[in-house]
Amino acid sequence: NAGVTQTPKFRVLKTGQSMTLLCAQDMNHEYMYWYRQDPGMGLRLIHYSVGEGTTAKGEVPDGYNVSRLKKQNFLLGLESAAPSQTSVYFCASRSRGSNYGYTFGSGTRLTVV
Amino acid sequence: TQLLEQSPQFLSIQEGENLTVYCNSSSVFSSLQWYRQEPGEGPVLLVTVVTGGEVKKLKRLTFQFGDARKDSSLHITAAQPGDTGLYLCAVFNTDKLIFGTGTRLQVFP
């Protein structure tokens, strides 16, 4: 089982460039999430989705957009990258229902120069 | 203000030692989860505790949920280098998890 797959694993962008991070899960999970992880800041929620076609803002949504056109995929877009968006990005998914844990991908390390 | 405070932030110990890390809050939670994150990987769920006072064991790891469901602890007996990683506690806020900032554990052989 692949679980949660994130692509790409590494990327370097120049300020102002755009890119899309892809998250794919094969567990038929309803909920999907995008977090960023920065030293000393922990995991902070960017956007999330509770089902196909739905998205919602998290704690730090500015500068990011998301789409969930298919249940298994959750895309995170950066329209105009800034150095402050240098981070490690994690996607996660889980089943509907209380107390189910997240399954995380292995992350995308993004550097904006 | 962080909803979940984890302590200590960093811990370096020798193989074979025992240790306890803590996750504290002023809020009451219906459940709490612990994750471990190894370098270069995403966090992996270790346990979910639900009942106040609950104790769960996972091999050499013992998890406890406080009686008032405001705090939790993770105790590792006879730590091994394979226990090295970032330990995160997390609680649900509606449909999403809120994470603490973690305890980074290094176990030296």
Sketch the topology of chain A as an H/E string, one letter per element: EEEEEEEEEEE
The class by helix and strand makeup of chain A works out as mainly beta
Order of helices and strands of chain B: EEEEEEEEEEE
Strand content of chain B: over 45%
DSSP E strands of chain B, number: 11
The largest sheet of chain B is:
6 strands, mixed
Helices and strands of chain B: which structural class?
Answer: mainly beta
Tell me the helix content of chain A. under 10%
Apparent shape of chain A: globular
Number of separate helices of chain B: 0
Distance between the termini of chain B: 37 Å
Outline the biggest β-sheet of chain A. Answer: 7 strands, mixed
Shape type of chain B: globular
- Beta-strand residue percentage of chain A: over 45%
Count of helical stretches of chain A: 0
How much helix is in the residues of chain B? under 10%
By DSSP, the count of extended strands of chain A is 11
Low-confidence stretches of chain A: none
In terms of topology, how is this protein built?
The complex is a heterodimer of chains A (113) and B (109).
Chain A: E1 4-7, E2 10-13, E3 19-25, E4 31-38, E5 42-49, E6 56-57, E7 64-67, E8 73-78, E9 87-94, E10 103-104, E11 108-112
Parallel strand pairs in A: 2-11
Antiparallel strand pairs in A: 1-3, 3-8, 4-5, 4-9, 5-6, 7-8, 9-10, 9-11
Chain B: E1 5-7, E2 10-14, E3 19-24, E4 32-37, E5 44-49, E6 55-58, E7 61-65, E8 71-76, E9 85-93, E10 96-99, E11 103-108
Parallel strand pairs in B: 2-11
Antiparallel strand pairs in B: 1-3, 3-8, 4-5, 4-9, 6-7, 7-8, 9-10, 9-11
